[in-house]
Design a protein that fits this description.
CATH class of the largest domain: Mainly Alpha
InterPro entries: AsnC-type_HTH_dom, Dimeric_a/b-barrel, Tscrpt_reg_AsnC-like, Tscrpt_reg_AsnC/Lrp_C, Tscrpt_reg_HTH_AsnC-type_CS, WH-like_DNA-bd_sf, WH_DNA-bd_sf
Keywords: DNA-binding, Transcription, Transcription regulation
GO molecular function: sequence-specific DNA binding
Number of domains: 2
Strand content: 15-25%
Order of helices and strands: HHHHEHEEHE
Structural class: alpha+beta
Strand order of the largest sheet: 2-3-1-4
Oligomer: single chain
Helix content: 25-40%
Mean pLDDT: 84
Shape: elongated
Protein name: AsnC family transcriptional regulator
Low-confidence stretches: 1-31
Distance between the termini: 25 Å
Number of strands: 4
Radius of gyration: 22 Å
């Protein structure tokens, strides 16, 4: 049996009224979760194929095309998902990829701000362990990689860098699941 949810409901159907004396639980019951089981199923379908038609997703999750469209729009607006084109850097002319470990001193946020302004850095993460930050970079060739590393090393507060050059991308996944 297919359950049809009312598109006017924020995300989940069957939100119950609070019982007296249960204020924290009552607030949770009044506010539907953005990640109810139906939205998780929609996300799983989009992770398999981001171009899958909403009507086809609706058949899998038991909603109309319009209901799926509305839910996806709310997930995008909430910043829970992004629907983007994933490219192959090699096909775009980026022949050198690397991970750069960075040790810093001083204000990590200020250094991160400077790194955000640096062309060629695709991914910046604060890390625990051997490095304070990890950067993923894409460059045209080794000369461009060297130039980028030198620009990173000139940023005040960057004490040390270590470059891990990618020889071959074996697998990159985007289907890590929804909890």
């Amino acid at each position: 049996m297919r359950v049809q949810h009312d598109i006017r409901e924020p995300f989940a159907a069957g939100v119950s009224e609070p019982s007296s004396g249960d204020v924290a639980g009552a607030e949770q019951r009044r506010t539907p979760s953005l990640l109810d089981d139906t939205n998780k199923a929609i996300i799983r379908e989009l992770q398999k194929n981001g171009r899958k038609p909403y009507g086809a997703i609706g058949k899998v999750v038991g909603l109309s095309e319009a209901a799926v469209r509305g839910r996806v729009q709310r997930l995008v607006e909430a910043g829970i998902i992004q629907i983007v084109a994933v490219t192959d850097p090699i096909q775009l002319g980026y022949r050198r990829q690397a991970l750069i470990g960075v040790n810093t001193s001083g204000d990590l946020d200020a250094i991160a701000d400077r790194l955000r302004e640096t062309d060629g850095i695709d991914y910046i993460v604060a890390a625990a362990g051997r490095f304070d930050m990890l950067l993923e970079v894409f460059t045209a060739d080794d000369d461009d990689l060297l130039d980028l590393v030198m620009r990173i090393r000139r940023i005040p507060g960057v004490d040390h860098t270590e470059v891990f050059t990618y020889l071959r991308l074996i697998e990159q996944r985007y289907d890590y699941g929804v909890r």
